[in-house]
Amino acid sequence: MAFPDGAIIDEAQKVPDIFDAVKFHVDKGDFKPGKFILTGSSQFRLKENMTDSLAGRVGFLKLLPFSISEMMSCNSSQGGNVYQIIQKGGYPPLYDSDRHYFPEDWFENYIDSYIDLDVKNNINASNLSVFKKFVQICATYSGQMLSMDSISRSLRISSPTVKQWLSILKSSYIIHFLEPDFNDLGKSLVKTPKMYFVDSGLLCHLLRIESAEDMILSPYKGAIVETFAVSQMLKNRLNHAKKANLSYFRDLRGFEVDAIADWRHSFAIEIKSTSDNEKKLSANLREYIKLRDNCKGILFYLGDETYTIDGITYVSWKDWENFENIISL
Description:
Elements: E1 7-9, H1 17-27, E2 36-38, H2 43-53, H3 68-72, H4 82-88, H5 103-119, H6 128-139, E3 144-145, H7 148-155, H8 159-171, E4 175-180, E5 194-197, H9 200-206, H10 212-217, H11 221-239, E6 246-250, E7 256-262, E8 266-271, H12 283-291, E9 295-301, E10 307-309, E11 312-316, H13 323-326
Parallel strand pairs: 1-2, 4-6, 8-9, 9-11
Antiparallel strand pairs: 3-5, 4-5, 6-7, 7-8, 10-11
Helix pairs in contact: 4-9, 7-8
């Protein structure tokens, strides 16, 4: 072993023999957790090699794009303008001041590289151009209940193909699903998940939103803000090696709460693309928490201050990532 004291090995999937070497070293018994850290940009090849060679010997940590606090710590974080931060997204290269990437070019190259590295070996080569259109169509459904039939009709592909391709996007952390919340509030609940893009910058690029001003005027503004909020909660959980434990509530009447977080405490969360704190914005929260015991009402909004009014905590966008740790319980 060339590195008996351990090492961080980037792009490990490019040299499959590394996995057997690490396995051999681990099985010798002279090992402690974290001695070897293997990273890679091709999700499927990296996981395949780890599953084949290191089953039972490895822990997986999912590293998503930058969170709010990480974006805000960068010099190029747009001065704290929430719309610019959401539109730019969290992919680290876009915050590298030495590279001077043009976001539009970077995202196009990212999509092409993603399809080449993570997708090409998982679908028929003749479908690659259709898959790229599929990703663009999916962007219009971010923040909504998933409709595989609608996507199928839009692209004239079968529902099983849509299901398979959604699985590819999910496995490579392009999208995330919130499953409907099943609890004791009644049997009249929907069974369809909601779909969200993990990165709001990629979402904006696919929706052809090129500036904060475009986003403010876009009919997708609410969905983009909701996508951004859900991604911040997801990143916080995964960054601490915890399960997401996020769902949403909707009954057959159409009554809905954007997100339910069953963590150390249970939180019902509404997400609003406004900086106002009007009481009517929390109407659904108040109705929901009357039905469920020991659940806190949280309203995510675009204001700059976090505070509690009549039992509902209004959480500033700056605190979405860590709201559980800053509100008084």
